[in-house]
Amino acid sequence: MEPPIRTDFNMALSDFAGSFRGIIDELKQQQKKMLITMHRYLDGDAFGSAVALGLILRRFGVDSALLCVPFLPEKFDFLSRISQLTILEASENRRIYSPSEFSQSLQAHFPEKIAEYGALTILDCAGFGQIPEEAWSIGLKLPHKINIDHHVGYLLDADQEGVLNLVGNCSSTSEVLFQLMEHLGVDPDPEIAVPLYVGITADLRKNDISEQSEAYPTRAIETVRTQVDKMGADTHREIKAIFSLDPWESYLLNAIKDKLCFSDNIVYVSFDPDMVLDAKQETDSLDNPRMPFHEFHIQLRQLLQQFKGSHPIVVVFDQMLAKVSLYDQNRAGTFDLASVSRELGGGGHANRAGFSFEAARERLLKDRIIETGASDDCVITEIVAFIGKHADGQ
After folding, report:
1. How high is the pLDDT of residue 84?
2. Three-state SS for 260?
């Protein structure tokens, strides 16, 4: 049986739903759109909840646009296709780019279209530093800013006028949205259930939450799964593809086994574009545009679980995304990885967190731990040392 919703969160849901419905009514009356954004390098929960929110708004007669930074990963193209929502990508060529580089498409879009928007909703960002600069610069010009998240402890600055927060201790932001739907009087039809199912399932797998766990969202997952079962075989195949590896990803996973590094209680790995290119060449997959994502990271962590007795902290340097991910394999509350991540410009949970590689570099430069022009290998070594020093018990 699913644990009952905490009374204080139930009250927060009710209060938030009333205020949020007021914003929806205002947008509809003014014929304005909602801009929806997620954290950089979005994952299944971020994009699943964003698509579901866009479809909920459509139920109320409000249009939306989803801003993906730097771009929408190819495995999620089908959600874009079946929802027919407007997708804006910060990188037109689906390549990793400097955060200071603002794509020509967005530069052309918002100066001309900003008057069409009346609110910005931010999903699954876990911290202010994870909100894309592109989206926040637009949101500052809009009367309403909404934050929906499941990373407890993070609220978008409530002192700012026009900020509305809903943060729940749930398995995923998609589960928060599922509960919000009930307060808005929206039933999850198959169209809305598909992105919710993807979002909830993605974070259940990412956080290794089993059906036996108290955190498992039984009611939510059973409700949306019933609706998803009404969809055709093609949709089921595309959902399954999200949670499977391509041949080149399997090759890359095996290659990483030879590059494991250890430091005190930390095991860390790094992979870069050259390794990905080699994996694609070796598996005749050069025409595959995807990056190692989602299921790849999950299976990489599973590979590293063999070391959890001696090296409980996992650090993954994804140089394709210039992103660093931290995991406490034992999830025993021994480490506060969220605090460490915030020190390096990121955010997350106590047992799972992350930050951008460049944000960490800037912090190390500021503290004079590294010098300007330090190699990536040097930065990786110092980041690992920083984590080891600051991830002590609470």
Report:
1. 96
2. coil
Collapsed DSSP state (helix, strand, coil) of residue 145: strand
In which band, very low, low, confident or very high, does the pLDDT at 3 lie, cut at 50, 70 and 90? very low
pTM metric for this prediction: 0.80
| Residue 166, SS3 per DSSP | strand
Identify the CA nearest to 136 among candidates 33, 19, 37: 37
Taking 50 as the threshold, does the pLDDT of residue 1 lie above it?
Answer: no
pLDDT tens digits, 121-149: 999 998 887 888 888 988 889 999 999 99
Task: Write the pLDDT tens digit of every residue in 22-55.
Answer: 999 999 999 999 999 999 878 899 999 999 999 9
Question: Cα(347)–Cα(338) distance, rounded to whole angstroms?
Answer: 5
> Encoding tokens for residue 28?
């509809």
Backbone angles phi, psi at 96, to 5 degrees: -75, 140
Task: Give the model confidence (pLDDT) of 269-310 as tens digits.
Answer: 999 999 999 999 999 998 877 777 778 988 999 999 999 999
Q: How far apart are CA 298 and CA 325, in angstroms?
A: 11
- How many other CB atoms are there within 10 angstroms of residue 142's CB atom? 16
pLDDT of 204 reads 92
Give the whole-angstrom CA distance, residue 327 versus residue 354. 9
Nearest to 58 by CA among 191, 155, 228, 219: 191
Q: Which residue has the tokens 């034992």?
A: 330
Beta-sheet strand order (sheet of 313-318): 261-263, 266-271, 313-318, 323-328, 352-356, 347-348
What Å distances lie between residue 44 and 73, 298, 315, 341, 349, CA to CA?
A: 10, 12, 20, 21, 17
Structure token pair of residue 376:
């990536």
Task: Tell me the residue length of the chain.
Answer: 394
Amino acid residing at 107: Q
The dihedral built from the CA positions of residue 351, 354, 359 and 361, taken in this order, carries a sign that is positive
- Residue 244 to residues 1, 210, 274, 331: CA-CA distances in angstroms? 29, 18, 22, 25
pLDDT tens per residue, range 101-124:
556 667 677 877 889 999 999 999
Spatial contact of 77 and 235, defined as CB atoms under 8 Å apart = no
DSSP state of 370: S
Q: How far apart are CA 120 and CA 368, in angstroms?
A: 37
CA 97/CA 367 separation, integer angstroms: 26
Residue 241 corresponds to which tokens in the numbers above? 């593809």
The label of the residue with tokens 């509809």 reads 28
